[in-house]
Amino acid sequence: MAALTAWFWNERFWLPHNVTWADLADPAPGVEYPKAGHLFAALPLALVIFTVRILFERFIAGPCARILHIHLGVRRRAQPNVVLEKVFTSITKNPDSRHLGGLSKQLDWEVRKVQRWFRHRRNQDKPSTHTKFCESMWRFTFYLGIFTYGFQFLWQSPWMWDTKHCWYGYPYQVMTPGLYHYYVTELAFYWSLMFSQFTDIKRKDFLIMFVHHLATVGLVSFSYVNNMARVGSLVLCVHDSSDFLLEAAKLANYAKYQHLCDSLFIVFSVAFFITRLVIYPIWVLNSTMSESWAIVGPFPSWWLFNFLLLVLQVLHVIWSYLIARIAFKAMSRGKVCNDVRSDVESSSEDESETATGVPMKGENGTNGHCAAARARAQNHSSW
C-alpha cells in the first residue's frame, strides 16, 4: 500500500520541476495551500445538500407545483403478475412478437392484454411531471445560487480580468476561503447527485449520468490537488452560466407555459453557444495551454489537465450541434421537440389513462418540450 501511495502521489507527475510536496507542506503563517485532505469535507457537505434537496422539494417545490396545478396524479399500475414481472425485470421491458406470443399462451391472455401490461409497467417506473418539476426547481435554485456566488467571487479576483494571474507564482498560490468554499460546494453538489441517483426513479441514462458525475468529481478534485483551482473556478463559472437557464425552461415546460419555455430555451441556446464555443476556448483554453506554458512550463499533470479540457471542448461542439438541431426543429415546427427520456407511453386506447380515468398525453398532458438537457447528456456544470 505504501508503494502504491508513493506511486500515485509522485511529485514528478503532479508538480512542476524542482517543486516537491514538502515545499507546499509548511507555508508561512496565515497562508494555506490546497491539500488532498481538504476534499474530504465535501462528503458530509454532500449529505447536507442531499438532505436540503429533499426538504426543498417537499416543502417549497411541491407547493409551487400545486399552485401551478401540477399534481402528483395516480397512474394506472400494472396488476401483479409473477410471470410477467420476472420477464420485465430479468429479460426485456419491451417484448417482441415471439415473447408476446409465448406469454399469451402461457397465461391464456390475449396478446393485446400482455402488451397493455408491459406498457403500464414501463410507465409505472417513469417519473411524473410533478417529480420532474420539483427536481428541476431544485437544480434551478442551486445553479442560480452557485453561479451568483461564483460570479460575485470572481468579479473581485484578479484572474478573471487577467488570466495570467492563474499562473503567476504557481504552484505557490494561496487557497483563499472564498475559492475553497466555491470549490468544495461544487464538488459536494456532484457527490450529492451521485447519491441521489440511487434513490431517484431510475431513468434510461442512469449509467451515463453516473459516469458523468464521477468524471466531474474526478476532474474537480484533480484540479484542486495540483492547485489549478484558479483556472478551475473559471471553468466552473463558464458552465454554471447557462445551466440555470435550461432548468428554467424545463420548469416553464412542466407548467405548460409554452411561449416562455421556447423563449427561455432560445436564451439558453445562445448562452450555451457563447460560453462553450467562444468564451471557453478563447478565455480558458488559451490560458491553460498558452499562458501557462510561457509562465510555468509543461509537466505531466499539466498535459493531462489540458487533454481533459480539450476533450471537454469536443463535447461542447457535439452538444452544441445537438442543441442547434433541437432549436432548428423548434423554429420550423413552432415548438421544441419532445423529451423522449421519460415521457409516459400512450396509445389510442385506455392504456394511456391514469387510474382515475383521465387521459394522459406526454407528461401529464404536456408535449414534453425543452429537451436539450437530454440531448447534451445533462451537461450540468460538467467538466
Tag the structure with descriptive keywords.
65% helix, disordered C terminus, single chain
What does this molecule look like?
- By secondary structure, this protein is mainly α.
- The protein has 15 helices and no strands.
- It is elongated.
List strands and helices in order, with pairings.
Elements: H1 2-8, H2 11-14, H3 21-25, H4 42-67, H5 82-90, H6 97-107, H7 111-124, H8 129-155, H9 158-161, H10 177-197, H11 206-225, H12 229-254, H13 258-295, H14 300-333, H15 372-375
Helix pairs in contact: 4-8, 4-10, 6-7, 8-10, 8-12, 10-11, 10-12, 12-13, 13-14
Beta-strand percent range: under 5%
Task: State the shape.
Answer: elongated
Number of strands: 0
Number of helices: 15
Uncertain stretches of 5 or more adjacent residues: 337-343, 348-369, 371-381
Helix content: 55-70%
User: What structural class should be given to the helix and strand makeup?
Assistant: mainly alpha
Rounded to the nearest angstrom, the distance between the terminal CA atoms is 30 Å
Query: Radius of gyration from the CA trace?
Result: 24 Å
